[in-house]
C-alpha cells in the first residue's frame, strides 16, 4: 500500500532559503522541423484484462479515437493570460492522495468523487489501435491550468513521460503523446499552463529568459512545485519507486554541435549513468553531424552543455533533494531523465523517430503490455 500523501505543499518551504543555489540558465526554444514522415501507426496492444482492472470502468464516460491525436487538444492556458491558479496545500495533498489511489486501486466511486471535488473528471479512452487508458482532466467552466494526465491500463515499460513545457517547447506535446502510445509507457503528464501564463515569480532556484524577463514563473511546472502536475509526479513516484520519469524539452540548438543534451537531473560525471546510455542510443540512430551529448559524461562538452535540468523540480524530487524548490540534488538515482532537443528532433521526421527508438532501447520491456520492440500480445480492451 502506498504511503499517505504529505500534508505540506510539494516543492515549497515555509521561509526563504539562506543560501540558494546558483541559477541555472535555460535557453529559448526554436520551432521544430515539420517534415512529413511516412505513415507509422503506433504499436499498441494489451494483454487480456483482469476483472479488477476493468470492473470500475463501466460507470465512467468513455472516449474513443486516436489517443495521440486527441491529446493534441489538451487545454493549456496561453502566455500572459493569468490562467494558472495555484492550488492550496490542502488541495495538493488531496490530489496527490487521490491520484495515488487511482493508480493503486483504479477509478472506484470514492476516488472519482474526490477528484471531482478538485475540478477533475475521470474517463476511459479506447484507442483505435487497441489498449485502454484513463484520462484525468480538468472539467467545468473555470479551469486553473492544472494539467491533463493519462494512465495506461496495460503498460509495457516501467517508464512515464512528462511534458512540462508542452506548448512553449513546440513539438513536445505531439512527441510525448506519440511516445506514450507507441512505447507503452505507464503514464503521461501534460502541463495545463504555459510557463509564462502568469507574471508571479517562482521563488525556486534557477533562471531563464524565455518569458522576456530573467527569472522563473509559478506557472512553469518544471520550476515550481505547487501544482497538480507535481502532485501527480509524486504519486507516480510513490507508487512506482523504480520507474523512470522522462522529462521531455526543447532547446534552441543554434550553431552548437548538439542535437540533444541528456542528463540524470545533475551535472555530475558518472560513466554508468542512465543518461549516458540514452545518449549512446540516440547517437546510434541519429543521422547528420549533430549528436547527443550527456551532462554526466566527462568527455562531452559543447555550446549547450549547461542544459542539465538541475533546476527541474521533478528531477530534484526523484534525486532526493532536501527541498525541491531551493536545492539541487546531491546525487542521481537513475530514475529521472531530462532530455533537451533541437527543433529537428521535435519534428516529425527521421530524427524524431530516432528519439522514440532510443527511448525504447534504453528502457526495456518489463511489463505485460505491448509497445515498440516488446513481445507482441493480442490486442484487447476492457469490455
Name given to the CATH architecture: 3-Layer(aba) Sandwich
Quickly name the level 1 CATH class. Alpha Beta
Q: Rounded to an integer, what's the Rg over CA atoms?
A: 19 Å
How many domain units?
1
Number of helices: 9
Biased composition (Polar residues): 1-16
Region (Disordered): 1-46
Biased composition (Low complexity): 17-46
Model description:
- Helix 3 runs antiparallel to helix 4 and helix 3 packs across helix 6.
- The N terminus is likely disordered.
- This protein has one domain: 3-Layer(aba) Sandwich (Aminopeptidase).
- It is globular, with a radius of gyration of 19 Å.
- By secondary structure, the chain is an alpha/beta fold.
- A hairpin with a 4-residue loop joins strand 3 and strand 4.
- The protein has 9 helices and 12 strands.
- The strands form 2 sheets. The protein has a 10-stranded mixed beta sheet with strand order 2-3-4-5-7-6-9-12-10-11, sandwiched between helices. Strands 1-8 form a two-stranded parallel sheet.
Keywords:
two-stranded parallel sheet, 383 residues, alpha/beta, 10-stranded mixed sheet, Aminopeptidase, 9 helices
Give the helices and strands, then pairings.
Blueprint: E1 25-26, H1 51-54, E2 61-65, H2 67-70, H3 89-105, H4 109-117, E3 120-127, E4 132-138, E5 148-152, E6 159-163, H5 172-183, E7 187-190, E8 207-208, H6 228-239, E9 244-248, E10 258-263, H7 274-285, E11 291-294, H8 313-318, E12 336-341, H9 350-362
Parallel strand pairs: 1-8, 2-3, 6-7, 6-9, 9-12, 10-11
Antiparallel strand pairs: 3-4, 4-5, 5-7, 10-12
Biased composition (Low complexity): 17-46
Region (Disordered): 1-46
Biased composition (Polar residues): 1-16
Amino acid at each position: 500500500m502506498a504511503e499517505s500523501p504529505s500534508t505540506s505543499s510539494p516543492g515549497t518551504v515555509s521561509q526563504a532559503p539562506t543560501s540558494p543555489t546558483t541559477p541555472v540558465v535555460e535557453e529559448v526554444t526554436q520551432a521544430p522541423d515539420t517534415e512529413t514522415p511516412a505513415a507509422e501507426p503506433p504499436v499498441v496492444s494489451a494483454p487480456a484484462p483482469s476483472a479488477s482492472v476493468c470492473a470500475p470502468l463501466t460507470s465512467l464516460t468513455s472516449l474513443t479515437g486516436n489517443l495521440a491525436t486527441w491529446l493534441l487538444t489538451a487545454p493549456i492556458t496561453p502566455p500572459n493570460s493569468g490562467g494558472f491558479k495555484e492550488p492550496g496545500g490542502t488541495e495538493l495533498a488531496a490530489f496527490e492522495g487521490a491520484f495515488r489511489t487511482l493508480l493503486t486501486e483504479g477509478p472506484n466511486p470514492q476516488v472519482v468523487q474526490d477528484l471531482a471535488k478538485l475540478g477533475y473528471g475521470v474517463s476511459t479512452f479506447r484507442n483505435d489501435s487497441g489498449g485502454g487508458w484513463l484520462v484525468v482532466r480538468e472539467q467545468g467552466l473555470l479551469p486553473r491550468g492544472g494539467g491533463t494526465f493519462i494512465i495506461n491500463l496495460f503498460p509495457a515499460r516501467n517508464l512515464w513521460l512528462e511534458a512540462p513545457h508542452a506548448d512553449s517547447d513546440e513539438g513536445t506535446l505531439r512527441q510525448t503523446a506519440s511516445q506514450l502510445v507507441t512505447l507503452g509507457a505507464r503514464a503521461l503528464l501534460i502541463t495545463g499552463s504555459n510557463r509564462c501564463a502568469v507574471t508571479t515569480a517562482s521563488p525556486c532556484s534557477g533562471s531563464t529568459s524565455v518569458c522576456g524577463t530573467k527569472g522563473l514563473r509559478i506557472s512553469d511546472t518544471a520550476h515550481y512545485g505547487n501544482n497538480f502536475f507535481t502532485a501527480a509526479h509524486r504519486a507516480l513516484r510513490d507508487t512506482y519507486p523504480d520507474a523512470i520519469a522522462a522529462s521531455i524539452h526543447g532547446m534552441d540548438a543554434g550553431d552548437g554541435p548538439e542535437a540533444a543534451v541528456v542528463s540524470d537531473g545533475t551535472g555530475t560525471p558518472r560513466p554508468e549513468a542512465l543518461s549516458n546510455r540514452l545518449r549512446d542510443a540516440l547517437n546510434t540512430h541519429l543521422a547528420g553531424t549533430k549528436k547527443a551529448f550527456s551532462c554526466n559524461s566527462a568527455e562531452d562538452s559543447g555550446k549547450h552543455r549547461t542544459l542539465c535540468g538541475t533546476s527541474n523540480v521533478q528531477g530534484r524530487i526523484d534525486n532526493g533533494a532536501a527541498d525541491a524548490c531551493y536545492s539541487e540534488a546531491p546525487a542521481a538515482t537513475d530514475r529521472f531523465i531530462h532530455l533537451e532537443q533541437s527543433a529537428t528532433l521535435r519534428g516529425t521526421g527521421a530524427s524524431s523517430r530516432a528519439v522514440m527508438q532510443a527511448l525504447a532501447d534504453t528502457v526495456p520491456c518489463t511489463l505485460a503490455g505491448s509497445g515498440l520492440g516488446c513481445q507482441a500480445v493480442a490486442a484487447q480492451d476492457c469490455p
